[in-house]
Amino acid sequence: AQTVTQSQPEMSVQEAETVTLSCTYDTSESDYYLFWYKQPPSRQMILVIRQEAYKQQNATENRFSVNFQKAAKSFSLKISDSQLGDAAMYFCAYRSRDDKIIFGKGTRLHILP
Amino acid sequence: NAGVMQNPRHLVRRRGQEARLRCSPVKGHSHVYWYRQLPEEGLKFMVYLQKENIIDESGMPKERFSAEFPKEGPSILRIQQVVRGDSAAYFCASSPTTTRRGAQHYEQYFGPGTRLTVT
User: Fold this and answer.
1) CB A53: neighbour CB atoms within 10 A?
2) What number of other Cβ atoms are within 10 A of residue A25's Cβ?
3) pLDDT of residue B11
4) Is A95 on the interface with B (CB under 8 A)?
5) A64, exposed or middle or buried, with CB in 10 Å at 0-12, 13-18, 19+?
6) Cβ contact B91:B33 at 8 Å
7) Cα atoms found within 13 Å of the Cα of residue B65, Cβ hemisphere only
8) Is A52 in contact with B105 (Cβ distance < 8 A)?
9) Where does residue B16 rank: exposed (0-12), middle (13-18), buried (19+ CB within 10 A)?
10) Is pLDDT at B25 greater than 80 in this prediction?
11) Least confident residue range of A16-20, B18-22, B93-97
12) pLDDT digits over B64-105, tens only?
C-alpha cells in the first residue's frame, strides 16, 4: 500500500524568506501523480502544485516549486518570497492509478512578520 | 462555474442519531469521492462513486456508514447511530471522469467540507 510521510509537523519562516517543506512517499507503482495542497483556516482544500511521475522536470507555479526525486521517493515543496497569506496547513498527497488520493498528515506553516 | 457544494457546512448530532451529508458535484461531473479528516490529521479516502454505482468503498467503515450517488440529485454520505469518534470534517471531491483517461489528466475538485460534531 502507498504511504505519504511528512516529517515536519510545524515550520516557521520569516516573511519574504524561502522555506522548504519535506515529503517522502512509498509506492511500487511507476506511474502516479504527486500533489501539494494548502488548507487555510477556512479548511478549503486548495491545489498548490501537481507533478506527474513520468516527467523529470520539476513543476513550478509562480512562487511555488517542487524538488521531485523519483528514485529517492522524495517530493519537497519550496515557497519563495513567503507571504502572510501562505500561512496554512500543507498536505503532500499521492494519487494512485485507482484514483484514490492518499494524504500525509500535514505541515503547519507559520509566517513571521 | 459553480464548484463542489456541500451542505450543511456544520452539523451537530447527539450520539445515536443519524447524520446525512450532501455533496453536489461540479455540473457535468459524474465521479464523486468522499474523504474524512480527523482533527490534526490529513484527509483519508472513504469511498468513490460514479452515478448509481459504488466503484471503491475500501475506506468506508464496514458498519453504520453508507454512500450513494443517484442518477438525479446530490451524493449522500449517511452515518447511522453516530458516535463521538465520527466527529470530523468530511470532504467531497468530484471529477468529470476517471482522473486519468489516456494521456489526459482530470483534477479532483474539493468542496468546502462538512464539519460533523457528535455530542
Assistant:
1) 17
2) 19
3) 98
4) yes
5) middle
6) no
7) 16
8) yes
9) exposed
10) yes
11) B93-97
12) 999 999 999 999 999 999 999 999 999 999 988 765 655 556
Residues B95 and B97: their CA atoms lie apart, in Å, by 5
Percent of all residues in chain B with a pLDDT value above 90, rounded to a whole number: 76
Closest by Cβ to B56, choosing from A52, A95, A98: A98
Residue B116 has pLDDT above 60, yes or no: yes
| Mode of pairing for the β-strands spanning A107-112 and B10-13 | unpaired
CA distance A40 to chain B (A): 11
Give the amino acid at A52: E
Q: How many CB atoms within 10 Å of residue B71?
A: 6
Q: What distance in Å separates residue A104's CA from the closest CA in chain B?
A: 6
pLDDT at residue A102, rounded to an integer: 94
In this complex, do A101 and B98 lie within 8 Å of one another by their Cβ atoms? no
Q: Rounded distance, CA B6 to CA B75, Å?
A: 10
Q: Over chain B, what is the mean pLDDT? A: 91
